[in-house]
Amino acid sequence: MTTATSHHGNSRQIALTLTARYASSWGSWEGVRELVQNWHDGIYDSVSQRGLSLISKYEVMFCEEKTDMFCQVFKACLVDSDTLKEVILGRLIYKKLGSKLYLINGCTELHKKILLLGYSGKSSNKEVIGQFGEGLKVGALALVRNGHLVTMETSKDRWMFDLIHNEEFGEKVLTVVVTGIV
What we know:
By secondary structure, the chain is of the alpha+beta class. The chain has 2 helices and 9 strands; from the N terminus they run ββαββββαβββ.
C-alpha cells in the first residue's frame, strides 16, 4: 500500500494506494465508526499487552465520565472485580464546539506498518473486531473526503491524513503527512 515517500521540510509524505473515489458511498458516519472501532480494539489489545487476561478478575468497562453543554467524555478502564480499582486505559472526548472528536489510548503504540492495507497487529482476542487492516485507512479516507481533519499522534510522530495528487499515479490518493512531535 505504501508507494512513495517524499520529504517536504520537516515532514514527509507516505502515499497510500487508496484513491479519493474508493468506498465512495462511505460518509462521515462510517469514517467515525471505523476510527472508534480501532480505538475500542486498541483498548482491548492494551489489556493483553499488560499480560492480563479478562478471564481472570479483570473487566474492561466503557462508561460516561462527564457530560456538559460543551463536552462529552467517556472512559475505558480496566476494573479489578475484587477491589473495584480502576485503571484508565483511554478516553473518548467529543467537544461540541467545533465538533471535534478525540480518541485517546495511551497504551497502544502505532507503527507505520499499520498504514499497509492488510496489515493488522491486532490480537485474536474475541473482543477485537478489526483484523483485516483496512478500517483505519478507509475510515480516514471517508472523513478526509468529507472535509474533516484527521490527525493521529504516535509516541514519535504526528500523522495528518490528506488527499494529495500523486504524480506517479496521476490521481489524488490518501496520503499521510508525517511530522515529528516537538
